[in-house]
Write a structure and sequence with these properties.
Rossmann fold; about 20% helix; globular; about 25% strand; metal-binding; oxidoreductase activity; 2 domains; EC 1.1.1.2; alpha/beta; 10 helices; Quinone Oxidoreductase, Chain A, domain 1; 17 strands
Length: about 350
Amino acid sequence: MTTVAAYAAPAAKAPLERTTIERRAVGEFDVLIDIKFAGICHSDIHQAREGWGEAVFPMVPGHEIAGVVSEVGPGVTRHAVGDRVGVGCMVDSCRTCENCAAGLEQYCTSRPTWTYNAVGKDGKPTYGGYSQKIVVDENYVVRIPDGLALDVAAPLLCAGITTYSPLRHWNTGPGKKVAVVGFGGLGHVGVKLAHALGAEVTVLSQSLRKQDDGLRLGADHYHATSDPETFERLKGSFDLILNTVSAPLDFPAFLSLLRLDGAMVNVGLPEEPVQIPYGALFGNRRNLTSSNIGGIAETQEMLDFCAAHGIGAEIELIDASRVNEAYERVESSDVRYRFVIDTSTI
């Protein structure tokens, strides 16, 4: 076992603090990664504050991990020392169920082993990327192409795959009209991806405050949802609405924007219960659904796509000592657009 420095939440809603954790010895099929950068996802805040229910503490958050392989087990064939790699939201799954066999490990019927706030098959808690090193089975480690800088690639391990997977599943491409609800950590990556896939992209945000950024990053149109005329003007316009916000919405208003057989896909998970008026689904045979990250193969596909199209996250790089400040700023939407921890400062 190896002792490494990390930042952890000792209890629910407690500030994160510097500590040390134990990483397991490198097993036959394991990869030891020197973590270089770790993105701060809103999910980290939800879980560290038990917004989604009871959690495992102490908690080392972080599932947007980019680093370099420093050791491999004797049976490893996928990665080698010196490789640039990433780890996303999961570090294991049952590997035998129908969904795992189909490359959809995120929907493992026995539940995936999440990168943090979970218990591994060894019965020990998993700890995430706000740390110096991590040991992961080679099958749950992806390659970061040379064309992607590690710091801007880190958020792609969650924000990237979370938006890429539904865009691909619902056949985003030329001739399709896609609306992205929310222009934050997830939304700005979703806009870049939808644009690169060839769709006509519209941002639906509360205000026009970030309009210039939205148009610069690939949006064709940008509208304020605080303006009631937006919903009248855009009624029946979109094939796909990608909802990236983690708060309840006026779902009838947003569903009215869908074309025949259009889908509204939710990738943000509010802490509060959400009410869906059933009648809002009847017009235009509308679909209201969700998507949960992506499988390992699709995550690799996403990274290769991003490298080919020059897509990385828009980031603010911070020292680890500022993690609690960053949490507060994320909560107040004061970040453009993803905080990334320089883990050399832990």
